[in-house]
Amino acid sequence: MIDRHDRIVSLIKELAAVFIQQEANTNPLITITKVTTSPDYRNATIFFTTIPDGREEDALIFLKRSGRELRHYIMKKSNMKIIPNLEFSLDVGERHRQHVDEIVRETGTPSTFEEIPKEKGDD
Question: Is 27 helix (H, G, I), strand (E, B) or coil?
């Protein structure tokens, strides 16, 4: 069962993604990676990445400029009692993960996330 906090975070993430898909140019492509909220739901931070790399500043300018419209969109499309104030932040953790994945592919190093085969008798 999903708790209230997870439902609200998921709803904000989904609505932000739909809004951005409808309102933003596709260059750069903005992807919403996660959302965090304060315990009282009055503030939310929307984390994003961009494709191509290097266009993060353009995306941040768009998101900050469109923040009020996005908040109004969330108010219109949801039945949330409290519509949070929105902040936007580049998801550097996701960017670093993608970079590590690139290095692993380039070097041919086996991924540490692949399942390790069991030895006979380890059952």
Answer: coil
Closest by CA position to 46, among listed 78, 4, 110, 89: 89
Place of tokens 């929307």: 46
Give CA separation, 81 vs 9, 14, 35, 41, in Å.
14, 17, 18, 10
What are the tens digits of pLDDT across the range 20-64? 999 988 788 999 999 999 999 999 999 999 988 788 899 999 999
Q: What angle do CA 101, 25, 14 make, to 5 degrees?
A: 65
Beta carbons of 50 and 29 less than 8 angstroms apart: yes
Query: Which pLDDT belongs to residue 120?
Result: 58
What's the pTM?
Answer: 0.76
pLDDT at 92: 81
Rounded to an integer, what distance in angstroms lies between the CA atom of residue 23 and that of residue 2? 30
4-107 CATH choice from 3.30.300.20, 3.40.50.1360, 3.40.50.2000, 3.40.50.300: 3.30.300.20
